[in-house]
Each structure stands twice: as C-alpha cells, then as structure tokens.
Specification:
Two copies of one chain form a homodimer. By secondary structure, chain A is an alpha/beta fold. Chain A is 44% helix and 16% strand. In chain A, helix 1 (15-25) links the parallel strand 1 (3-10) and strand 2. In chain A, helix 6 (152-163) crosses helix 11 (248-260). Chains A and B meet through helix 1, helix 4, helix 5, helix 6 and helix 11 of A and helix 1, helix 4, helix 5, helix 6 and helix 11 of B.
Chain lengths: 261, 261
C-alpha cells in the first residue's frame, strides 16, 4: 500500500488527537505513514491555510480535534475528509445523556488540569531524586526503589507530570545490596515503596550505552545486583514491577494502579 | 443534572482514552462527574469484573479503548453502553482507506514509541538542568532561558518525555540581568534559545508559595527581573513565550512549533 501523510489537526496542543491517530493507525498495519501534527489551529484563517497545505499533499489522512465545527469547514471545502474526535464521539454521548453537545471553542480540553499541583509534584520529585533529601520521604505519595539505571527517575517524573503524584526515588547501591535489609532511611516508609526491576540483559544494555565495557555494565554485575535487590524486595514484601518491555507511560500507569490497590 | 461516574476503560495505560473523555465531557458543561480510570483491562476475566464493578454504580458513563471487540462484550452483556474509540473511529478510517481495521489486541498503542530516545532525552535534560554542564549545550535541540521559577524545568522535562527532545535550560540570575547581553556561554547557541516569560503577578505568586514574604518573591523584584529579561530577549531577537495562562502541555507544544517554524 502506498505511503500516506497523516495530519493531526488540533485547536490545542494536538497531544490527544496524535495519541488517538496512533492507536487507530495500529489497526491498519499495511499502511505506511508519516505523522505531522498541526497544533493551535484555532481560527478560520489558520484552518484555511492548514487545509491548503494538506490539500497540496498527494495522499493525506486527517485526524482532528476541533471543538468549533466551523473550523472543520475549510478542510471539507478543500475536498479533504477528516476524522474528528468530537464529530465522531460527541453525538453518541449526547444521545445517551439526552442533551446535545455544546462546542466550547474557548475552553481548554485535554489534560490541562491541576497545573500547580503537577508542577509542585515535579519539583518534589526532582528534589527527592536519587536519594536526595531523605528527611522529606514522609511527604511522598510513592517512593521508587531499584538499582542504578532501572528507570526510577523518568518513571517518577512521568508520574509527577501526568498524574500530579509526589514521587521520590532511592537508588540501591552495591553497598545497600550487601545487607540483608533495606537501608534504614526507607524502613519508616514501607507502605509507599514500589520496587522496579528489569531483565539483566536489558539492564546491561542500558548501562553499556553509557559506560561501555565497564564492570558496572557487565551482565554478571547486573545479574548479581538484580538478584540481591529482588531478595530485599521479597524480604520486605514490596510490590515489584518488571519494566523490561514497558514504556514509561505503562510503567507509570501500572505503578499508579499498584498504589491504589 | 445529576452526578455521573465516568469510567475510562483501556487494555493499556488509559492515558489516551482519559484525554478523549475529558475533551468530550468539556462539551457537556452541565454534567457533574468524577473520572475513574481502569487500565490494563486486557482479558475477558478482567473485562467481566470491570463490568460488574461499573454495573453496581448508579449513573455511569464508559469511554473505552479496547482493541479487541470481544472485550467490549461483557460490558454490553451487563446492560452498559460504552463509547469505544476504536468502534467509533476505525470504521470511518477503514472506509476511507478501502480496507477493514484489524483489531490488534497484542499491539501496543498510544504514545509508547521511541522509548530509548525519550529516556536519553530525559537524562540529557536533567544533566543540563538549571545551567549545569554548559559545555554540552551544543548537543541540545532547544535551550530554554528565563528567570527563576518561570517554568523552565517542567517544560524541558515534558518536551523530553513527550517528544524525545533534548532540552537544556539556563537560569537568568539577577547578575545576568544586570548586563546588556546574554551570558557568554549562551551566545554560541542563539538559534536554539527559546525564552519563557510570565506576568509579574503570576511569578510573584509562584515564588511566594515557596519563599513567602521574601524580597525574591516580591512583585517589585519579579517585575524588575522580567523587564530586564525581556530586554535581553529583544536584544538578541529570541522567540519568547508568555506562559501565564498555559498548561505544561501547551507550553511544550508551542515551544515545539516555534522550534520547527
């Protein structure tokens, strides 16, 4: 099948419509396509020039999230068809609720809520990154533990940015791993600890990319650290997540459901 | 209108369907609702117990992203109606392409791509946070500049996590602001600089939350710093983003479009 250019047109950031387009396109595996996002198309002028740009592309698909139906008109006038999230979903919801959707052009949609709580959470997670400021662990919603390069920091930051959770992370060093119990500073916070682990092969590959041919990055060292860490997790009955084949979004969502379980 | 419980049911993280639900619900402003996300509903057993849980709720709406149509059956068998992203959008896309969607139960959908590039970008952004390691600025995709607490760090991290961009950030201190040109270390990177600014009132409120009643957090000090900073931005003709009323998603999307413009 020939290549398509897939445009994601939004009156806001385009993050949501881009995620929807990727999900839907995964169901058409024969399609080869490149994705172009056109955010902040929030006036008739911008819609008209976006439509002109897309119309000059030979094989185009358009996904859109345009709250104002009027902004979809220039695309259709240019002979383009678009799959608009609001147009395709809102009528079904309205029928179920027994009232019509009110296009809310000016209203922010998407994930823009709780800005300050989320920024506070990011700052908290940075301040308690990598074992810093352990005296503030009692203020954390979650404390991620694991060996070096297991993915604690990105997971903590994603949980903070996406969900507004205050997430500390604490590294288990080879010294910590030589003991039979977790470091004393963590013992007062056991219910909030979440352990991350990985396959030794994956951990070695991640460490190799940073410190090639080091003892630190050797498969043997990675295996020893992970075995010792997992024994500590069992000792304290911590919830453990094996992140070997997971994206950061998936790690965060799983940690969050562990936490509410 | 009475309260509804809105459930977002996904066979993966639920991030996408949650964003879609929030967008759609914004078009029904009279609706009072609470949002509950049920992620990783990826087997008939999990779908059946999720359906039982939801059926016990008095007024429920369900948004879903369930790639396997079979997983939607337990909900409908329980008399529940659900608005499924795939069900509502894929047929229109398939008709346009002239082929049917193939439900891809096992395939990851959503924003799970380029995991390693994104993690590298997060590490880069942390290593070049707040003016650290200026010798590596030439490796950055973007360099955010601005006064203290203007939102540089969360914006840089979000750009890294969401888009895989390597984003440094550099604080303009009162000392920097007393000069008529940007710090020398930035001058070799002007095309990649992006300036952030805020209203003085908003900046003062953010600083007050952290250091109440300090000179640093006073409206006068904030105003002086912002005026001096904006004069430097004009001097070097930097693209400037006023983030006063923006979410971190919006800041990131706007910085990204500035960068490609």
């Amino acid at each position: 099948m020939n290549d398509y250019s897939v445009f994601c047109v939004s009156d806001h950031t385009g993050v949501t419509v881009e995620a929807v387009a990727k999900s839907i396109l995964a169901q058409f595996p024969r399609l080869e396509c490149s994705l172009i996002t056109l955010p902040f198309i929030d006036s008739p002028d911008k819609a008209t020039s976006a439509a002109a740009r897309i119309a000059s592309t030979s094989r185009a698909l358009i996904f859109s999230s345009l709250t104002d139906p009027g902004l979809r008109v220039p695309f259709r006038n240019a002979g383009l068809s678009l799959f608009d999230i609001f147009e395709l979903i809102s009528p079904a919801v309205g029928a179920s609720l027994g009232e019509a959707a009110i296009p809310s052009g000016g209203r922010t949609h998407g994930m823009a809520h709780n800005y300050e709580a989320r920024m506070d959470a990011v700052n908290f997670s940075l301040n308690l990154d990598d074992g810093l400021n352990p005296g503030r662990l009692d203020q954390a919603d979650l404390v991620l533990v694991g060996v070096s390069r297991v993915g604690k920091t990105p997971s903590a930051l994603y949980l903070a940015l996406q969900y507004g959770l205050r997430v500390a992370n604490y590294p288990l060093t080879p010294d910590d791993l030589s003991h039979t119990a977790l470091p004393g500073v963590l013992l007062g916070h056991l219910p909030r600890l979440r352990a991350l682990t990985l396959s030794p092969e994956r951990l070695a590959a991640i460490r190799q990319a940073r410190y090639p041919d080091s003892r630190y990055a050797s498969l043997e060292q990675c295996r020893e650290e992970l075995i010792a860490a997992e024994s500590l997790y069992r000792r304290h009955d911590l919830p453990v997540l094996d992140t070997t084949r997971m994206s950061v979004e998936e790690i965060a969502a799983r940690l969050r459901s562990l936490s509410s379980g």
